[in-house]
Design goal:
Two copies of one chain form a homodimer.
Chain A: H1 16-35, E1 39-40, E2 46-48, H2 49-52, H3 57-63, E3 66-68, H4 87-94, E4 95-99, H5 104-113, E5 122-131, E6 143-152, H6 158-173, E7 178-184, H7 185-194, H8 201-209, H9 211-225, H10 230-240, H11 246-256, H12 261-277, E8 286-288, E9 299-308, E10 317-322, E11 336-342, H13 343-352, E12 366-368, H14 373-388, E13 393-395, H15 402-411, E14 416-419, H16 422-427, E15 430-434, E16 440-443, H17 445-452
Parallel strand pairs in A: 1-5, 7-8, 12-13, 12-14
Antiparallel strand pairs in A: 2-4, 3-4, 5-6, 6-11, 7-9, 9-10, 10-11, 14-15, 15-16
Helix pairs in contact in A: 1-6, 1-13, 7-8, 7-12, 8-9, 9-10, 11-12
Chain lengths: 455, 455
């Protein structure tokens, strides 16, 4: 039986160059997380469906990969129930487990389950793949890495500051220029409350978001179309036309939202963040953006999104504060704040800007050519000494024509080839070939080690 | 709604200490793989079921986790077919994808699919989790890491030697004492052929395996029970009683198997390996073990298993040579050899022998206590300078009682606590507390950095 092999749509194989580049991103992120005192956790790829369902909206439930129960998966289901129309409902009865859809819900589940072992505030990071049965398209995969960092159990704004510092440092280390957009859910609630439309916070935010593109007339028409009252729209106008830098906007908002308790709290929080930032030397600009809402329901305070102007692309990181994420698992009233870095989008940015470090770091340093059994043994003992110096080195496994061996060395980007044939062994030296410059030397072992390790 | 959260049976959460320890194992393995010139690849968690099915035997097919098709998964199945009895068969019609069961079959699929991009011999390693719907028990999980290293496209024995060197080096770096058992499938075939029972290779190997435990009489009775002929059993006796060191056994086998072509080839291969090993300085003993068979059908040459005497436990690594793994995917005649390291069993060995390095490496170095807003800002600027030196440092996020902050520092194994309150700020110094020794100093920033970084 011969099949033409393939992999599921929306998934990817990673070749060596791709793994090395992806790991460069993950390692950079991990190093910064660690420097700020965050600890790693990991959760299983499979979670109970009861943990996952209802946390991502109806659309999300549909996009969770479900794992068929082992054995008689139809057990307990009558034949009358087995109809095509009820497939969606049935899927939750033939499956008890699903694949991780994000890292936030498993984190909340983890915190509740391990609360007695954890020290709060708990600062954790988690770097693992997630799976979504989304329609695959350019830049959107069905298996992709998320890198989440969260602190849970502290309401202090210092945590928001720390996440901004972490974000700044990660993208500085990756040499990607970014802008951090920041907003606060309480401000959005305050705006809706102030204009008398508390229930329509999302619609109003979406409309504000279109100001730049379609102008105030069309925005107002859209709001009216969504049922926002005339007087509310009138009250919204000064907010639509807020201009100037973040600090000016904040002081204006302070006046506009002065009658809304929640709005005032939001302005205070945003003010606090900018106040701290002024004393720090973060590089990336941080801008108040009142049009920023972020879709997820669980945010209750600061929200952050990271954009790069270097490449046409959506946000490459984002997050915010949530006041009751663990409530659904039985641990209410624990505030947390976190941010998630999209490793795949960052990969795409660095690909397009040629931002990856030189691949040679990941490739082989030295190869011994193979001249046959007697020479092999000589080379193996030399190799033992060379590897002990931490040098990446190998012996070509077959005594084929030298030309073929050199072609292999070239294809693998091997920097140096060592020849230790009969005359070299007799003369007690090694011929060393620099495959990049074409130079060639006759050297002793210690000289070879010096040259090859660039010392 | 409040649920008591849990995870699926046989899966595990990894707490920070566990992640750090597991990564210590994976990093050690990865470093050695890299030093020998192996390149990393990764494959998707989900493979098409057509790729996986039929590769692991009937039992294996049952143990593959299957992912329910999205949408109407009953599509194309008539109501008459939906019966409980046919659940096993139906599972392959309502599911097109399954979770990775090992790293070997995805690797074979990868090699065939990417053959035009790869340089042969292709030396790859792969460190990823796999999933099996096995009955969970002590030391056996449904999600666990495999660390595979293979070279494909070369029949040279030097590859076997290299894998033995790699194994030796990994366990030396992990400080686990091991014995490598080695055998050759061709020898096992040769023995069966020589005694005239070519078809009963596995039964004969299993019987030989019991010599130590039950003695020759019961072994012979078992063989007879399995239908092995009297004359075959007679011919087997000299092999059962082979004693002495590996080299003696090999020279005896050479005579015993001289009439079997495949057996002679196997002896030559084993001889070749020991011959090379004599010139090398590997630390771990390598022993010929004629009772070693390894279950997997695809092995055709050398087979290796790694045992440790330090802990009661099955093999912690194992592998062998296969001559036609990629044939099933349409690329016949490519020989390869590989070995797989069981990270979870290695974890258990190191846990039982207290073999993990000091955890303090993974924990925080320095924490600033929080005295309130004014002091916070002062600490944040100090922290920027401290982190630039690569020191792991944090500021406690809330200005709660110092006692509570110190309890947190203790619980997190933080080595140093820095106090920078009002009097410190005025006096332009920092109070530094060594949480381990209890000592306390008044220092300037550069002195603090020196002390904390152990310089």
């Amino acid at each position: 039986m011969t099949e033409k092999p393939s992999i599921p749509k929306g998934t990817r194989d990673f070749t060596p160059v791709e793994v090395v580049r992806r790991d460069f991103i993950l390692d950079t992120i991990r190093k910064v997380f660690t420097r700020y005192g965050y600890l790693p956790i990991e959760t299983p790829a499979m979670e109970n469906l009861s943990t996952l369902l209802g946390k991502y909206g109806e659309e999300g439930d549909r996009l969770i990969y479900k794992i068929l129960n082992s054995g008689d998966f139809l057990s307990g289901i009558s034949r009358d129930e087995l109809t095509h129309d009820s497939a969606a409902k049935l899927s939750f009865r033939v499956c008890e487990k699903g694949l991780r859809y994000d890292l936030t819900v498993p984190f909340a589940r983890f915190v509740v389950q391990h609360r007695n072992e954890l020290v709060f505030p708990f600062k954790r990071y988690q770097i693992q793949p997630v799976w979504r049965a989304d329609r695959p398209q350019k830049g959107r995969y069905r298996e992709f890495y998320q890198c989440d960092v969260d602190v849970i159990g502290s309401g202090s704004l210092l945590n928001e500051i720390e996440l901004i510092q972490i974000t700044d440092e990660i993208f500085r280390d990756l040499a990607i220029k970014i802008v951090m957009k920041i907003n606060n859910r309480k401000i959005l609630n305050g705006i809706a409350e102030t204009i008398g439309e508390s229930q329509r916070m999302m619609e109003i935010t979406i409309a504000i978001d279109k100001m730049d593109k379609i102008g105030p007339d069309l925005v107002n028409r859209e709001l009216a179309g969504k049922g926002v009252s005339k007087s509310a729209i009138d009250k919204l106008q000064p907010i639509l036309f807020l201009e100037g830098d973040s600090e000016h906007k904040i002081s204006e908002l302070q006046k506009i939202l002065s009658q809304s308790k929640i709005g005032t709290k939001g302005v205070e929080e945003i003010y606090g963040i900018f106040n701290y930032l002024n004393t720090l030397s973060t590089h990336s600009p941080v801008e108040l953006d009142l049009t920023l809402a972020r879709g997820l329901d669980y945010y209750t305070g600061a929200i952050i999104e990271v954009l790069t102007a270097q490449v046409e692309m959506g946000s490459i990181a984002g997050g915010g504060r949530y006041d009751d994420l663990t409530g659904i698992f039985g641990l209410p009233g624990v505030s947390g704040v976190g941010i998630s870095f999209g490793a795949d989008r960052i990969y795409d940015v660095l690909s397009q800007t040629n931002g990856f470090p030189d691949d040679s770091e990941s490739s082989m340093t030295l190869m011994f050519a193979n001249f046959g059994e007697k020479e092999e043994k000589h080379c193996l003992t030399l190799l033992e000494k060379i590897r002990k110096k931490g040098i990446r080195a190998e012996l070509f496994p077959d005594p084929v024509k030298l030309k073929k061996q050199l072609a292999y060395a070239n294809a693998r980007n091997i920097h140096y080839v060592a020849l230790a044939g009969e005359s070299e062994i007799t003369g007690n030296y090694i011929t060393l070939k620099d495959m990049v410059s074409g130079e060639q030397w006759q050297v002793k072992l210690d000289e070879l080690i010096r040259k090859v390790s660039g010392a």
